[in-house]
Input
Amino acid sequence: MSILVTGGAGYVGSHTCKALAAAGLEPVTYDNLSTGHRWAVRWGPLVVGDLADRALLRKTIREHNVEAVVHFAASSLVGESVKDPAKYFRNNLVNTLSLLETMVETDVNRLVFSSTCAVYGAPLTETLDESHPRSPVNPYGESKLAIESACRWFGEAYGLRWLALRYFNAAGADPDGQIGEAHACETHLIPLTLEAVINPASKISIFGTDYPTPDGTAIRDYIHVADLADAHLLAMEKTAEADTGLSVNLGTGQGHSVREVISMVESVTGRPPRQVDAPRRPGDPAKLVAAAERARTYLGWTPQRSELRAIAETAWNWRQKQAHDAHRDAVAV
Ligand code: UDP
Output
């Protein structure tokens, strides 16, 4: 059975391709490689294309007899979305509409959509469950919320069977070391902290030390990317049932502060990351932690590898492998 994975060359997308292949399915990656990597596509064919190209999308779906879609392709940087909302509404909302309409045309009615906890905006409760009010505070979250709404109405009108997975903080790398996080412009805490261990010219800036949290730094719910991948597989299987049309949080229910993450990186690498206190990053709430009950009861999903230590260890292994490969390639030139 072939599954179209849009954005399958990206971070969470490539880990999901690995999980789909391990379950005996064929992931067909559809990716324009604007941020994804050709090397990350290892478990099925790659079609280099844009979601706006409906003819290519149609051809890909038909040629591979695609039966379901897992949709990751999106722009996903909160800060950039505030500066360039047009890009976010075009790449995320308009291009997803192109995908959804093509699915209707080609009679593919199963969709797992990569959504985000950014749909909630500023938290009103200690942990966020799926019924928490949706009031995004940036165009990224707004574009994802609009897509969830489109899915709902496509479900009503055209029988789309969909599930939206609202991730908290994706982190870590493939436990086998084959793939991992590799953003051209890295903004995330764990890879930047590892950089501050490795690179003498680099420091991790702690964005905000005056939050109303026990150590003054912001708290997030870090979830291992391989656990996220498993959740996509379960969700994709679930779309075969009639009972869909739901948004599901993917988180652990446990929060960790920025300082806790930095300490864990120090413990795992054996070296203290160079660090500096910095002002809060605009738009960052003090605490974002999932209430993840629905994922457990509905999907039957429980995170297996999301202890902070396992996250930091796999990210560190991956970072060392990248450094090793870069050195090898430089020597070969
Ligand atoms: N963070 C930080 N320094 C950095 C990057 C991130 O202190 O260089 C903090 C950020 O303010 C947030 C947490 O780390 O509280 C996680 O941020 P990240 O960018 O990794 O993920 P996000 O929560 O934005 O999806």
